[in-house]
Amino acid sequence: MNRLSSQEISTFNTLLSDLIGIASVKGEPKEGAPYGEKPKEALTYLLDRAKADGFTAVNVGDKAGYIQWGNKGPLVAVLGHLDVVPEGSAWKTDAFTLNTETDYFIGRGVVDDKGPVLCAYMAMLRLKEKNPDPDYRVRLIIGTDEEHGSSCMVRYCETEELPDIGFTPDAEFPCIFAEKGIYQMHFEETPSGKFTLHGGNAANMVPPYCECIDLTEMRGISADGVQAHASKPDLGVNAIDLILEKMPSDLKNSSKLLLLMEKYFGKNSETKFSSFFSPDVSGPMTTNVGIVDISKEHAKLHVDIRWPVTIKEEAVRAKLHEIAAEFGVTVVDDSVQAPLFKDKDSEQISVLTKIYDSYRELFAFTEDEKEARSASLSEKASPIAVGGGTYARTMPNIVAFGPQLPWNQDQCHQANESILKENMYLLVPMYEEALEKLGNTVI
């Protein structure tokens, strides 16, 4: 294992600082920028850098792109994304200025997913220097709409070559063999006109803030929660839940949406929606009310549902329509991603899991992580199932591999998103080895 040189560290830090500085949250579509100007800017930045470094770099419909080393043989791919979720609240520093003042990189995207994408890019630089004419090709496939349904990868698959094998560094170690289904939808009703209620920025985030204004009394109440990823809602505190506890009963009772939430999707619901479905090898169903948007003109409640891999999508949809009918509201589908399930004993997963096993004791850790790390290291490294969704489900032959460690607190979609610098740097030789070994399995 060859750790990064001082020059490589300097290069990496510059690239990461530049990319974090691009606030690549999805925006209004424009000509040449279907997801808004900032995601396009991030894509262009990395493609231009790759061309300058001697790679083949291709823009795919302004939605995706790829960077390639090698001209012959099977295709080994790394899939990553440069779009990010909104910063939310509770940041101690500017979310879009890379903070390097401590042992951590701090900024929106350092973990999800700009940092890992750059680790893969640095690994490719090393491989290109080591072997200019390999018997397989390595392609870094970059998307800019992962946080909103991955239509960027749909566009890529329409015209571009699919990989023979590969991974996406957008989840957790050791390696992911199953990803729950993801159903994002919203309920609608005609508003009462008695109040406005607004909270949340994305269905796949636990909302950190919510505000209600009583239009009769012209007074407002608000609630502060704790942001988290929708796949792990228990790590956050839902501000919409908190506002329901504060709202006057006459206002709350005037909204069928809020009564529906209180019965089936609230933290104190007696009959949670998830209770209608049994857990399986991928874990239990989770639900997250990510956005509430009630005004004089419209009323919407956006929900993110992560369902176990053995449950049928039709069963989830049928139950949603059943509870909607109970309250007389409408169901509108926003996006659906089918579950992913891979053979845990496949050569691909075995290779990646063994690589993680050989590196895991080298990763740095904090005093707070010491106990969880010891427990993790005492067990055999084995592939896991997650509730998060990755690009692995957009193409064949791809699995998620890192970057978060079993003893890390989840950083995805969190305020003050961070990773130890030492651990970020270690991902480069780790991903370098992964690309080499996966390449050798397909030539």
Outline the structure in words.
The protein has 443 residues and is an alpha+beta fold. It has helices at residues 6-20, 37-52, 114-130, 151-159, 239-246, 249-252, 256-264, 313-327, 347-359, 370-377, 421-442; strands spanning 56-60, 64-69, 75-81, 104-106, 137-143, 165-168, 171-172, 176-179, 181-189, 195-199, 205-206, 209-214, 219-224, 228-229, 286-294, 299-307, 330-337, 340-341, 384-386, 398-400, 403-404, 418-420. The protein folds into two domains: 6-179 and 341-442, Zn peptidases (Aminopeptidase), CATH 3.40.630; 181-338, Alpha-Beta Plaits (2-Layer Sandwich). It has a seven-stranded antiparallel beta sheet with strand order 13-12-10-15-16-9-17. Strands 1-2-5-3-6-20 form a six-stranded mixed beta sheet, with helices on both faces. A hairpin with a 4-residue loop joins strand 15 (286-294) and strand 16 (299-307). Helix 1 (6-20) packs antiparallel against helix 3 (114-130), helix 3 (114-130) crosses helix 11 and helix 9 runs antiparallel to helix 11 (421-442). It is globular and about 70 Å long. It starts with 5 loop residues before the first helix and ends with a helix.
Question: How would you sum up this structure in a few lines?
Answer:
The protein is an alpha+beta fold. The chain contains eleven helices and 22 strands. The strands form six sheets. A seven-stranded antiparallel beta sheet has the order 13-12-10-15-16-9-17. Strands 1-2-5-3-6-20 form a six-stranded mixed beta sheet, sandwiched between helices.
